[in-house]
Amino acid sequence: MQSLVASETKRLNEHHRKLICDSYEFMRTEANKNGLGIFIRLFAEFPHYKNIWPNFRQIPDSALISSDGLKNHAKVYMAGLQHIVESLEKDATLGEAVHRIAMTHSKWNIKKFHIESMIPELLDVLKECMGGTLPAETAYAWTTLYDIIGNLIQKMQQGSRHNS
User: Fold this and answer.
1) Running DSSP on this structure, what letter comes out for residue 111?
2) Which positions fall inside the Globin domain (predicted)?
C-alpha cells in the first residue's frame, strides 16, 4: 500500500501543491462557513448522501442545513482538509495524511464516486472565495488531490474484498 500511496501522491507536482496551498488560504479565513457551504451544495445535489452519516439520517432534509451535526461535520471536514494542505510540502507527510483520510472513509463504505461528487462543490465554494475566478490549473490540482484520495479508497476496498 505504501508504494501505491507514494505513486499516487507523486501525481501532484510541486507547482500543483503550491496552487492548492495558495488557493486554500482563500478558504481558511472562514473555514467552517466554507465547509458548511460545500456540504449544503452536496446535499442539494445528492440528498440521499445524508444517509451515509448515521447521525444525519434522522434529521429532516429541511432541518439538515441548520443542524449542529452538519456544522460540526463541516468543521471536521475542513480540519482534515487543512491537515492535508499543511502536509503537501513532503511526500511522506502527504502520503500519511491521504492514507489516513482514505482509511477512515473506506471504513464508512465511502466510494470513489462519493469523493468525486464533492469536487464540483468544493470548486464552487473555492471560486466564490477567490472572488469569482478559479484558474483551470488550480481546479485541476484540487481535482487531482481528490482523485488520489478516491483511488486509495477504491484500492483499500478492493484489497479488503480480496482478503476476506
Assistant:
1) -
2) 11-158
DSSP 53: S
> What's the pLDDT band for 163 if we cut at 50, 70, 90?
low
pTM (two decimals): 0.93
Locate all alpha helices (DSSP H) within 87-163, ordered by sequence.
91-107, 112-129, 136-163
Answer whether residue 157 shows pLDDT above 90. Answer: no
C-alpha cell at 5: 500511496
Q: Are 50 and 43 in contact (CB under 8 A)?
A: yes
Question: What's the one-letter identity of residue 154?
Answer: Q
Hunting for cell 465511502 — which residue is that? 110
Is the pLDDT assigned to residue 160 strictly greater than 70?
Answer: no
Distance between CA atoms of 122 and 100, rounded to whole angstroms?
20
160 near 112, Cβ under 8 Å?
no
